[in-house]
Every structure is written in C-alpha cells, then in structure tokens.
Amino acid sequence: MVRTISTLAIITILCSMVQADLLPPVVCGVPVQVPESLATTPFDIPRTLCLPPGFSISVVARIPGARFLAVTPDRGLLVSQPSTGRIIFVDPAADPSSNASVYARGLYLPHDLVFHTIDEQTYLYVGRGDAIVRFRWNPGDRAAHDAEVVVRDLPSGSSGELRGAYAHELKNFAIDSEHRLYVAIASATNANPEERNATPMRAAIHRYEADGSNGRLFAAGLRNAEGVRFLPGSDQLWAVVNNRDNLAYPFEDGSGLFRQVFQEYVNNHPPEAFTAVRDGGDYGWPFAHPNADTDAGWENMPFAADAENNPLGAMYPVEKFDRISKGIPAHSAPLGLTFLQHTNFVPAFANGAVVALHGSWNRVPATGYKVVYFPWNTETQQPGPQQDLVSGWLDEVSGDVWGRPVATAVDSSGNLLISDDHSGTIYRVTYSEPVAPTASGSNP
Fold first, then answer.
1. CA-atom Rg of the chain in angstroms
2. What pLDDT score was predicted for residue 437?
3. Is 98 helix (H, G, I), strand (E, B) or coil?
4. Is 312 helix (H, G, I), strand (E, B) or coil?
5. Distance of alpha carbon 127 from alpha carbon 424, whole angstroms
6. What is residue 435's predicted lDDT score, i.e. its pLDDT?
7. I want to staple 284 with a disulfide (CB 3.0 to 4.6 A). Which of 62, 85, 93, 288 is the partner?
8. What pLDDT score was predicted for residue 82?
9. In the 8-state DSSP scheme, what is residue 422?
10. Which residues contact 292 (CB under 8 A, 6 or more apart)?
11. pLDDT of 436
C-alpha cells in the first residue's frame, strides 16, 4: 500500500526537519519510473522504493555490473564496469534505449573514477586493479585517449605472493589540492596479520606525489576502504571501511564464550567505519575493532581486542589505535561515499554525506541494501546520525533482494545518481519543491 502525504504536511515536515538537521521520514511505495525500453528484470514487474517526501526515482540506464560513477564536465556520466574491463559513457539526455556507449575498454578491473584538473588540463583518473591511470579529458570526449600510468605496480591478483587470491582487489583513491594521490590498498584476506608485512602494506592507504613517485604509507589498519574522499574545501581525508567477518567473542567475562564465533555476536560486530583518516593513523585491523556496546554508542567508539590476533590486547594495547569517527551497522558493506557540500543537491540537505550500503552476506537477518545520509556538523566537522535516504531493495519480511547500491554522484541539476551492480541499473533521484496551497475564496 502506498503511503501518501499532503503538500502542506510535506512543507511542515521539511521545515521542522531542516531545523533539526535531519531528513524527514521516508515514504514507502514510491514507484520506480522505468522507460519501456529498460523494463527488463527486475523491472518486468512494478518496483517501489522508500524515499523522503518530495523525492522521486527513475531508471536512467541499464549497465550490467555498474560500479563507481563520475559526472563528466559536460554533464554526461561515466560508469566503471570492472567485470568487463570497460568504462561506459551515459548521456542522460539521450533516448534511454541508446544512451550508453563504451568510453574505454581493455582495462584491468577499472573501479574508482575521479576527475581532476592540473594547470587547466582536466584528466579522468581511473583506479585499475594494478595501477592508477589517467586520460586527458576534452569537452565532448566520448572515447578515452592519451592514457598515462600514474601509480604503477599496485598489489593485484597477479602479484606473486598472492597467486590470484585477492579478495578486495579493486582500487579506490582520492586526490588532494596539491595533486597528490591517496590510494586504498585493501586486504587480501579477512583478518590475516601478515597483510601488515606486505610491501606495500595492505589494509592501508598510501600517498603518492602527483607523478606517482615517493609512495609511502599514509594510514594503516583499514581493512577495505572503498569510499575514499576529501571533505570539500579541505584536505581532510575520509573513508568508509568494510570491517572483518566472523569475529570471535573478545571478552573473558565468565560467560564461557571467549574466542567462540557465533551468529548472535557476529550479527552486530564489528561495526563498519565512516572515519576521518590522519597521516600516520592506525585504525586497528586486524588487532582491534570498534565496539558499539558501550555508552559511546556509534561515536568515537573504544576498541575491543581481536580474540584471534590479539587476545585480550596482550600483544597490542587497544588504546594505541585511532578511534573511528562514526560506526555503521556491521556487515552493511559501505562502498561509495559522496559529500554533498559544494554540489547542487537539495540545498536544505546539501551539508551532509551519502553512503551506499551494498548489503550483508553473513548477517541474519540481512542488513544494508540502501543509501543513507549523514548530516554534517560544521562546528565539529563530524557526521551526525545515520538516516535512510533510499531503501527498499531488500524485502525485510522475505529477505529477497532485487538491488544492491554501490556508489552515488550528484549531477549538475542537483539530482542524485545511484549505481546498482546487482540489477545493473543507474537510478536518478529527483526532488520537487512542494508548493504551498493557496487559500480559497480570498479576494485579490
């Protein structure tokens, strides 16, 4: 059943929520608008999602395995497709039946996409599985050209010591105001301490000069930092991080559960991370993990020692690690991070961040499968409480899943674009300002 809400109620809710720095509660049953030419599975039947009042959602393109997004300087959209080694160009203004074309092909696991300008020349930077490459960008480009390898020899499945066993091979990165690259090199395993002895260290972020030289460790203990972005207007790096699975109970508290792995504990531990990342920081993995079961809640959580790799903190006191800024429910699998500041997103909510939660595989019941919003506190420069922005790809009653969001981007018109690699879809979330009703029977 579709829940409806009056225009006057929408305006009242929006005003009160903006003052409280919160999104209004989502309205479920919002139809996903799908062009007839794109209405193949899962859109061969009507689909609905949950969004705040005033927002609508439509399908822009169907791209199998769609991952990360970048809005081009000329209002197009690039979509990485690591499963095929391609980057796809989408013209959102074209006929949906023919609005996608191949921009680049033959790339090794292309993933993150970042536009960046140096000395008036704009480049598209691409995170390959084994390198960071860039292509010169000129207005109107529809095919990649002038390729350069910027950062070489990143760990990949073909690295000798890994022998193809690399669980988190895809690369994400960010570029600061001095054109330096910050590359997330994720772990190859769930929780093997040997990752810290690798060269370069895995489960870490490394910094490189603009030409790819002088690579060095920037921050450690980040198992799989997928969303890596700078807070707009600053060189403060932030990341969303997928933490470990199958965490054993870490406390010797008389319960007899110490070092046991059981579903009730695994369900909610450890939280995923949304955190500021400092130069020289160490965020714990695989020796300690944030613990939400304290009075701190999700904010600046203390650590619990890993019962497998650092039992009771005997090897590494948990106090030595940098606490993360904000927790996200365990196993949500945060991937894309987009700061809304300095974009054309709905002004009332443009001081915040959105994170795509890809969804859990080992939690009962499942969690994630949605895009969430964090209002931003300009005084503390910290994210506020997590709130749902778009949800409904997971049927919480049956457990059925028909979509898994990966990444987001804001286009020049202020619409939010979302990629979904499960259904192979690019969505566009649009906001329409509600119009207040006029009084009837009044004289001019």
1. 22
2. 53
3. helix
4. helix
5. 20
6. 56
7. 288
8. 98
9. T
10. 268, 269, 271, 298, 301, 327
11. 53
CA-nearest of 333, 339, 334 to 410 is 339
What is the pLDDT at residue 4?
A: 38
25: Cβ–Cβ under 8 A, 6 or more apart, which residues? 13, 52
Bridge-based pairing state of the strands 352-357 and 77-81: unpaired
User: What does the pLDDT read at residue 151?
Assistant: 98
Q: Is 353 helix (H, G, I), strand (E, B) or coil?
A: strand
How confident is the model at residue 171, as a pLDDT?
Answer: 98
What are 5's two structure tokens? 């809400």
Q: What's the burial of 51, exposed, middle or buried (CB within 10 Å: 0-12/13-18/19+)?
A: buried
Select from 399, 365, 394, 369 the least CA-distant residue to 267: 365
> For residues 329 and 271, what is the distance between their CA atoms, to the nearest angstrom?
5
pTM for the model stands at: 0.93
Collapsing DSSP to helix, strand or coil, 366 comes out as coil
Is-cis flag, bond preceding 200, omega within 30? Answer: yes
Residues (pLDDT < 70) of the chain are 1-21, 434-444
Phi then psi dihedrals of residue 277, to 5 deg = -125, 125
CB atoms closer than 10 angstroms to residue 393 = 24
Residue among 172, 102, 97, 60 at smallest CA distance from 411: 60
Compute φ and ψ for 19, nearest 5 degrees.
Answer: -65, -35
Count the residues in the chain.
Answer: 444
- Asked if residues 425 and 59 have their Cβ atoms less than 8 Å apart, the reply is yes
In degrees to the nearest 10, what's the CA dihedral of 420, 421, 426, 430?
A: 10
Strands of the sheet containing 100-104, edge to edge, are: 69-71, 77-81, 86-90, 100-104
How far apart CA 115 and CA 370 sit, in angstroms, is 26
**CA atoms of 405 and 427, how far apart (whole Å):** 10
- Please state, in angstroms and rounded to a whole number, the distance separating the CA atoms of residues 168 and 189: 8
In the block, tokens 């391609």 appear at 86
pLDDT for 21 equals 62
